[in-house]
Fold:
Amino acid sequence: MKVMILGNPDYTEAVIRKGHSITLDPFDAHYTIADAINTQAIPKDNEAIIILSGTVSDWAAKQSRPDAKFVNTIEEAVGLIKTSEEPEEIFEPKDKLLLLSYANKGGVGKTTTAISLAEVLSENVKTLLCDFDYAGPNIGAFYSVETNNYFEGPVKPIKVKNNLYVLPAPKENIPRGSIKGEQITEIIDSMNFQVIVGDTPPAPWDLPYLHSLFERSDLVYSVVDQSLFSVSETKRFGITLVAMGVPPEKMRIIINRYNSRHASPRKILDAFCSGFKKESRTLPKVVAHIPEAWEEQVKAGYRATILNKEVWEDVCSEVYAKLGLIQKTEPKGFFSKFANPMQKLKPLFTRSVAH
Ligand SMILES: Nc1ncnc2c1ncn2[C@@H]1O[C@H](COP(=O)(O)OP(=O)(O)OP(=O)(O)O)[C@@H](O)[C@H]1O
Ligand SMILES: [Mg+2]
Structure:
């Protein structure tokens, strides 16, 4: 394996002794072994092994690279290097899911939803979080990562923690008219992840290159800001999705900025579904209601952490069931008081149910 050293030059000898080679090129390295004080210099998508120093640098290193492995000696570090690359698990199309955030307007919580889903899912499955909001991207800034114009070059998802990769919007401005829907779906299809979570811009109906993405999706999480709820607008949410090829059974509703003084979740659900044809067999569900918490949200964004984790874990139970990793289950969601407790998750996380 090729190893980059960011620390004591004497480490080199221990690495070579075990049959690995040293590289100075971060793009060539499989692993980086670094002293805790050098953590910031470790390339984002390298496997990081950090040698602890017993000082405050250790705390900072753990904060900035939670995905790293932490050891006390160079011998321990070298012991963690695999002797050959293990073959990557290949996911078949039937074992992959595309989830999208969605809303007809800005600032309602789409990005918060996409990040929360991806963070929680990556605790159990290999997840890619993509930013399709080319005009107002947020994902790159959230994780402090950048990428090239992947419409004209290689597509390189960036590993931000174990099992979680992100594909931010390219740092160059991409002219609207130059993007084709097939390019985006081709990229999605070429990615080897169990779950791809896509963050989308407001009102994707106005951006025809996103229609095929919506049509291709397995679940769409529509975010309704309860504090701004209006019947006519919410009715349009659902029917716009239908017009983009998303049937009602693939729609899920997230009520954001929930407050019991505003319109009830039942009223929101009724408005959302009111435009659907009567023959729609399965209607969307309200799967989460997220309380308003300005200060906590700001702090969470600053620290790149997520809030309401247990709510998102509940939402994700359905995704695991779709992947065949647990027995079929429904998110408890808002109308859960009458849910059968026997239907609780069976946290097997082994592939047990075929599609
Ligand atoms: N429940 C909440 N309580 C308080 N603040 C929230 C809540 N949900 C989201 N926010 C904040 O509102 C702002 C907008 O949220 P977010 O970026 O997720 O929305 P968006 O729909 O993706 O916006 P845009 O259309 O601009 O992409 C963010 O600063 C976020 O932290
Ligand atoms: Mg957003």
About this structure: DSSP finds eleven helices and 13 strands in the chain.
